[in-house]
Amino acid sequence: MSSIPRDQWYVAAYTAEIGRELFSRTICGDPILFWRTEAGEITAHADRCVHRRFPLSRAPSRLVGDTVVCGYHGFTYGADGRCVAVPGQTRVPRTARLAQYPVVEQDSLVWVWIGDPALADPGRIPRASYLDSPGWTTVRGMEPLAARYSLLVDNLLDLSHETYLHGGYIGTPEVAATPISTEVDDDAGIVYVSRHMADAECPPFYERSTGLSGRISRWQDIEYTPPCLYKLHSRIAPVGSVPDPDGSDPDAFHVEVVYAITPETEHSTHDFWLVARDFALDDEDVSAFLAEQNRTVVLQDVAALDVLEQVIATEPPGYQELSVNIDTGGLAARRMLARMAGAVPAERAVPAR
Amino acid sequence: MSSIPRDQWYVAAYTAEIGRELFSRTICGDPILFWRTEAGEITAHADRCVHRRFPLSRAPSRLVGDTVVCGYHGFTYGADGRCVAVPGQTRVPRTARLAQYPVVEQDSLVWVWIGDPALADPGRIPRASYLDSPGWTTVRGMEPLAARYSLLVDNLLDLSHETYLHGGYIGTPEVAATPISTEVDDDAGIVYVSRHMADAECPPFYERSTGLSGRISRWQDIEYTPPCLYKLHSRIAPVGSVPDPDGSDPDAFHVEVVYAITPETEHSTHDFWLVARDFALDDEDVSAFLAEQNRTVVLQDVAALDVLEQVIATEPPGYQELSVNIDTGGLAARRMLARMAGAVPAERAVPAR
Amino acid sequence: MSSIPRDQWYVAAYTAEIGRELFSRTICGDPILFWRTEAGEITAHADRCVHRRFPLSRAPSRLVGDTVVCGYHGFTYGADGRCVAVPGQTRVPRTARLAQYPVVEQDSLVWVWIGDPALADPGRIPRASYLDSPGWTTVRGMEPLAARYSLLVDNLLDLSHETYLHGGYIGTPEVAATPISTEVDDDAGIVYVSRHMADAECPPFYERSTGLSGRISRWQDIEYTPPCLYKLHSRIAPVGSVPDPDGSDPDAFHVEVVYAITPETEHSTHDFWLVARDFALDDEDVSAFLAEQNRTVVLQDVAALDVLEQVIATEPPGYQELSVNIDTGGLAARRMLARMAGAVPAERAVPAR
């Protein structure tokens, strides 16, 4: 059985990736065709001609106005997925239409619903409005990961690895040494993991971007909404500084690190990453620095997780991991994902009377 | 169960490919060794030493007179496949012989029988005598296809794809727009598909080779003898020209486009192609042009079909295609092939009384 | 069921390969981590962190004194495999320890025991003391083989292939032509295969290294101790020369060709090779010549066996080889290996009364 939850929203792309060119990306095993209509609406359909399976994203297939013409035999589809022309005859079979995916543009992200379209509720899409708001500047990228998405979930829910895998970038000894607190909100479907370091070394990532040096107060507050959206609320401030009772926090620097964890297949993942900040908004050097640094960090994760996927592929069945306190958040996330994927149906998770 | 019909003749090579060098090609999953005796006869045997499986086509194996010496331990075989020498002893086991394949040279093609040799009847091999006749000039090639042979059968039985996949080469709008007529001769085992365009654009392929320009009469008469031999009788003539009642056709240009569709494995195919013409017989520019153009067209098909094989490999089981009128010939061919492969035994296709 | 015998000693490396760097090699499917303590002892453990599987051999994992620090989350292990530190907490779970492999350094080889450590008896490791003795000079190498280990066993037990696969290096017509004698010592677990050529051509390998030319007496005495250690006692002497009754053999040149046949996985093998000689001990030209020649010969085997692995992968199930006299030793070795691998349990090989 698949470990990938369906009937869920996933990030498929950045909004800027979809325009008047045919664009394809495989999400949860489904190859999906994206393009924008002349009016600017994003469409999302199965990337496979109903006739003989040719991918509609592939040349010589092409976009003609608001229709897509298949490059193999010329089957032509409108923005609603309905076939409007077939070769050699005037009648178009009524059943000739592409499966359509619910799609939403929000917070600079393109979300698609994978599963039964009747269940799609855009109101359930988690928000990250700072990714597309005044007062914030964001850098971003996406790296292909040759590993199952759950390895990336494990990785991001346990930041103690920063000290070892990302030393010299974002890791310092305090990250691994400081205990975490974990909270699980099953109703909202969110896992929270917090680590507040009151007096810590400032890693290069924050030193050069904020201008702070020496010891700092560093807070990491993770808010993960399985399956796809991971947010790390990062607060960097001089030692001793705390937010004001009214919520304002003028001495601190805030960085929102966001990951969208989107399964491509059972064994590969789209690793979308974004870094938003509320300072140095127009400083292009800071933007370039944070983009380059975070991409390096993501590629360190990619290299490690690609190795883990290979390790799993060759290990004997029944291998058991050992978990410790730092894994509390990751294990909670795994339980939620297993329930979503149907491995532990939610209705049976409540004991019968 | 295999989808590849056995007890059938397949084209394994062009006659010019087989000489006094060891030559190997895998046909329907069987690696076969070919070479010519000193008298010029082609031999076809299993390409695998009976001792420890070493491929006899592979260096340092070598041809010595009319024997093949295995490059691993020196087992030596005659032209009839019998082992005539083994190392370390003088007695040669009687069972030491290579499986032999019936083989026929005809029409510049090397045909092998895949299946029970007792059933091989050279009289059943379909002919294409213009490939090796005075009055005709032929260009040819072979491209490896990383896709199952049935995808190439689909492709060739439905030429409406010329308009889209081969636009600028052999496709014009009329090919996709003109309805076809299909005829199936189950007794002879032939599928016919015809498309006669009375007034059509002349594509570059024919314009430059025939010298005709402007509008033309263009006939495409497909004659496919499953599983292997596909012939497209192509007639190009000025608009309004028809053959004389006696069969002569002096104003027309005739091009015989032949494909031999030979499965290499369940998922790969030898795509042999030949273009014979009855005009400009000695014009090497025309030969070079047709060879280059047809190879380009074949490589466009190869690129598309390789993609389809990948699509099939990752799609969920039970995926259903949608067929329309243009597919009539292809569907008839599929039925014949399925019957040949044993999926629908011929005797059960007739209802019992 | 695996064809690889467990509860056996295998050569994992040359002693010079293991030092103060983390070193990993997969033996019989198990990835194993090797390093030397500061006191010079070799350690051998599972190359996989107990926490989240990260390979301990892989950067940024590193050796710190006599501990290994995992590069992912910093789990730290001592030379006995016990975990001594985990991130985020002071308590270390008692079950946190790496599986340890019995390991022995002997005759310049690093042997590991694959299987139940309680059964490991270093006294059962076969010896080849000339590999690390005064009076002998040895050259060596290791080539990766993309083929199952049994194909290399077949290859080395039947040297008639030297004539064909290694002609111009170590093969001459007499090797294939001269019958062998085979002896199997089931109690000691050794297969002996001998071929004494009284009057043979001297191949380049021996001509240039010994200085002998013209006809020679050439003895090949194989002593194979399954599964791993293969020794070819090679004696080269002028025609007519025999050892003295007291065992001394002043007119002869002795070359000990040793192979360690170590399965990496079910379908790949570490092909360790060594050539020891009792002459020209300090002649670096002879060393360089023998190393280059033997490596070339091994690579000829590797190329052939890699092909055989591919042949097996695509052949229909139930394919039957044909064996002749030269295969007697190889077939005896196969029987021993099958018994060791549990295919023919030793206790059932004796008929019940």
* Biggest chain contact: A-C, 28 and 25 residues
How is the quaternary structure best described? homotrimer
Radius of gyration of chain A: 22 Å
Nearest-integer average pLDDT of chain A = 95
From the helix content, strand content and strand pairing of chain A, which structural class follows?
alpha+beta
Strand content of chain A: 25-35%
Q: What's the arrangement of strands in the largest beta sheet of chain A?
A: 11-17-16-15-14-13-12
Low-confidence stretches of chain A: 345-353
Shape of chain A: globular
What's the helix and strand layout?
The structure is a homotrimer of 353-residue chains.
Chain A: E1 8-14, E2 23-27, E3 30-36, E4 42-46, E5 62-64, E6 67-69, E7 76-78, E8 83-85, E9 103-106, E10 109-114, E11 137-145, H1 149-157, H2 161-165, H3 173-177, E12 181-185, E13 190-201, H4 204-210, E14 215-225, E15 229-238, E16 253-265, E17 268-277, H5 284-314, H6 328-340, H7 346-349
Antiparallel strand pairs in A: 1-10, 2-3, 3-4, 5-6, 6-7, 7-8, 9-10, 11-17, 12-13, 13-14, 14-15, 15-16, 16-17
Helix pairs in contact in A: 1-6
GO molecular function (chains A, B, C): dioxygenase activity
Keywords (chains A, B, C): 2Fe-2S, Dioxygenase, Iron, Iron-sulfur, Metal-binding, Oxidoreductase
Organism (chains A, B, C): Pseudonocardia kongjuensis
